[in-house]
Write a structure and sequence with these properties.
- It is a single chain.
- The protein is α/β, with parallel strands linked by helices and 175 residues long.
- It has one domain: TIM Barrel, CATH 3.20.20.70.
- The chain has helices spanning 6-13, 27-36, 50-58, 73-82, 94-103, 114-122, 138-148, and strands at 18-19, 41-45, 64-68, 86-89, 107-111, 127-130, 153-156.
- Strands 1-2-3-4-5-6-7 form a 7-stranded parallel β-sheet, sandwiched between helices.
- Helix 6 (114-122) links the parallel strand 5 and strand 6.
- The longest helix has 11 residues, at 138-148.
- It is globular and about 40 Å long.
- The chain starts with 5 loop residues before the first helix and ends in a 19-residue tail after the last strand.
């Protein structure tokens, strides 16, 4: 996936698996299965100290790797050094946005309200994580947001699973 536009890959994938590494996972085996199933992207959270190790271990896989739960510029920098091609955070962090823009790396901050979407747009961000989607009726909200924010691509996350999956709104609004 090297050299590909991460946002284009995310939009094409329509699925972003999220991995929180606790220890003992067969990371290379997981990467192989994802690739065999046609999933070319993986978000590895920084919720544990093993997240950066996992990014480093998988950086030579064929997967496009993102770092999730990025909560500071220091974490963002470490994730990029470890091999992340994009950054995701639970909220909008202006310092991380500036760092990502300076490095030419996509940053998808978590947003929920129209005010947060407007703040992100003012920072030059138009690909946003809609979080948490499920508890806040993501499908309904994203349908409304598609009318008001046609220039934004949303990545709905939080509470979405194969068992409770609901439509996430019009395709034009979601990644």
């Amino acid at each position: 996936m090297e050299g590909m536009d991460p946002l284009a890959v995310l939009a094409e994938s329509r699925l972003l698996p999220l991995l929180t590494v606790r220890g003992g996972e067969d990371l290379l085996g997981l990467a192989r299965v994802l690739e065999e199933e046609g999933v070319g992207v993986l978000e590895i959270t920084l919720r544990t100290e093993k997240g950066l190790e996992a990014l480093k271990a998988l950086r030579k896989s064929g997967l496009l790797l993102g770092a999730g739960t990025v909560r500071s510029p220091k974490e963002a920098e470490a994730a990029l050094e470890a091999g992340a091609a994009f950054l995701v955070s639970p909220g909008l962090l202006e310092e991380v946005a500036a760092l990502a823009q300076a490095r030419g790396v996509p940053y998808l901050p978590g947003v929920l309200t129209p005010t947060e979407v407007e703040r992100a747009l003012a920072l030059g961000l138009s690909a946003l994580k809609f979080f948490p989607a499920e508890p806040f009726q993501g499908a309904r909200v994203l349908k409304a947001y598609a009318e008001v924010f046609p220039e934004v691509r949303f990545l709905p996350t939080g509470g979405i699973s194969p068992w409770g999956r609901t439509p996430t709104g019009p395709a034009s609004a979601t990644m």
